[in-house]
Amino acid sequence: MTLTNKKANCAVDIDRISDLPCNVIDGILKHLNVEELVCTSLLSRKWRYVWNTVPQLVFSENFFSRFEDVDDPSPEICRIISEVLLQHNGSIYSFTLDIPPVSNILITAEYYNKWILFLSRKGIKELALSNYGIFCDKMPSHVFSCQELTHFWLSGFNVSVLPNFCGLKNLLELHLHNNTYEFGALETLISGCPSLKELNIELVGDMKSICLKKAKNLIDLRLTVNQKSVSGLIKSLPNIQRLTLETYCDKTFYADIIPPSQLISLKYLKFNCVNLDERGELLYIVSVLKSASNLVELDIESDTLDGEHEPYQLEELERNSYCFSQLQTVNISIGTVDFKHAMSLIRFILANFSSLKTLAFKVGFPREKLDPTAVLSIFQDLLSMKRASQRACVEFTRGDIDVQYVILPSGFEYKQKLTF
């Protein structure tokens, strides 16, 4: 045997992974899905039972993809998940079950409840249940047994609350998407979470109203509304500091969802898919700016693409002069060549916010060719606008050629990103 071969054999016998510190091994294992975790048992005798003490278990697309060609995969899926849980010997702090949109996967409420009851005895803190397969009409009731739960994601279920519901006292974050709700269930659930700080919710169908009065610690709300009837939708909103509003439904206006008077404590506000060509929407944004005296950052993304609305004059913005002191950062992004109404809003902001540091304005998409005359008009208007803050920097970005103009009170410069 040559010296080279001896060195090669010695290298094979060295188990460098097993000699790593425990915290490093744990850091590696937490990023593996369940199938990969179980396979580590084949590495060596030392690794045979390492997987069944990992506190995070994830059943997601990688796991379910292996059953794509199986006619009825549900029994086998349920068997594997049950077996993995039963063989686990340690605490389980995080559990994710994310069923992809495959029509032939059906997990009954019986299995959900059995698994979650098991997890409740394992100290579960983070639980994510997403069912985009065959719709399951029942939310697992044993979720309410998970009293140590701090983070909860639920998608694709009918939400109901047991009559003897005592709340989830430790819950900090709640994410609800693509669900339906029994009458009063949503308010009861939220009211039973006194420690709740972050709520991310999508409303579909015909939800009448939501009272969040008892969620006194709620500071971060992300609300997606996909229903037409929204008048008075949010009532008794607590003093939240961060708000993101989003809707993809035509003729659904933000002004009807939350009145400006409920947003006086905001520090961050984002509007997704707002139509700045709607006079009422633009005036609503201005009303919020006048009410939210603590607002520091404003993000606006407009989805107006047609440019068919007739331009209108915003006399309300021109008649009065206001002096606001907190707003520092504004980001406005529009995908339309009709920029006149966005420019009216920018003119108002620049003229009235003395603490403004940065206003970023992006027009157009990468494949949308902008009219050079329109670009020149925008640039000239931005350069001539009156500013309440002499340190305000205006960043105008063309989305079509990725050019940014930086406009300061003393002059301007432009930057172009080169891609290869």
From TrEMBL:
Pfam families: F-box, LRR_At5g56370
Top-level division of the source organism's lineage: Eukaryota
InterPro entries registered for this protein in UniProt: F-box-like_dom_sf, F-box_dom, FBD, LRR_dom_sf, LRR_FXL15/At3g58940/PEG3-like
Classification via SMART domains: FBD (SM00579)
PROSITE patterns from the UniProt entry: FBOX
Record-annotated F-box domain positions: 14-67
Protein name per the record: F-box domain-containing protein
Origin species: Trifolium subterraneum
Lineage: Eukaryota, Viridiplantae, Streptophyta, Embryophyta, Tracheophyta
